Structures are given as structure tokens and as C-alpha cells.
Amino acid sequence: MTLTELLTFGTSSAGITFIIVYGKIFDRIRPTKGWLGQLLSCTLCTGFWIGAFLCGINDFTELFSFNHTVANYLLCGSIGSAFSYTFGSIMGDDGVRVEHNHNGIGKGV
Fold first, then answer.
1. How far is it, in rounded angstroms, from Cα 109 to Cα 103?
2. Is 40 within 8 Å of 23 (Cβ atoms)?
3. How far apart (Å, rounded) are the C-alpha atoms in residues 82 and 69?
4. Mind listing the pLDDT tens digit for each residue in 53-104?
């Protein structure tokens, strides 16, 4: 796998994950309760399954290619999960997230 393939795969996984987890188009049909609701509200979890899914359909794209082995499905799922979680931590609906933690550090108590 080249760096370009890795970045293409990771950003594809993150993009699809974000559409499924946060996309308003799925608000009416996305479950909110039970194990499926928990799965589809978590970028880490959904990203894993999207990565494994993309590994499974890689014969139908020229963007990346993997052999169909259990190890590759696990690795692709992990890559998809890592990219999705990382992008979810960095990006939000309004762009780059900037959070301030005002817990009293540096202030005289």
C-alpha cells in the first residue's frame, strides 16, 4: 500500500462514516436506540465497519486494492476507525474544532 492509497482509503472511510453518523439525510432512518443505534452514533465503531466494507468492495475501485484476507479486513477496519475517529476529534460541522478547557489551571486558588 502506498501513502496515497492509505490517505485515499482513510479519508474515504472517514467521509462515508461522517455521512452515516452525522448526515441529516439519514436522520429519519438512523436508529437511535439499541446496539445498532449505539454503533451508528460512534465514529470509532462505524469507521471500523466502513473500513472493512471498503476492503470488501476494493475489487470495484481503482483507488486502492487489497487481498481478501481476514488480516486485511481487520487492518482496513482499524485504519478506517482511526481516520474516522481522528477526523471526528479535529473537525466539526463548523470546521476545525477549537475547545477551551477552563478548569482553573494557572489560576490562583
1. 11
2. no
3. 20
4. 999 999 998 888 889 999 999 999 999 999 999 998 888 767 787 776 666 5
Helices 70-90/43-56 angle, 10° precision = 140
**How confident is the model at residue 109, as a pLDDT?**
46
Distances (CA, A) of 66 to 8, 22, 60, 62: 13, 28, 11, 11
The one-letter code for the residue type at 80 is: G
Residues 23-67 pLDDT 10s: 899 989 999 899 999 999 999 999 999 999 999 999 998 888 889
> Could you tell me which of 9, 3, 21, 101 has the C-alpha nearest to residue 64?
9
Query: Are the CB atoms for 17 and 50 separated by under 8 Å?
Result: yes
Distance CA 89, CA 97 (A): 8
Cα distance between residue 84 and residue 43, in whole Å: 6
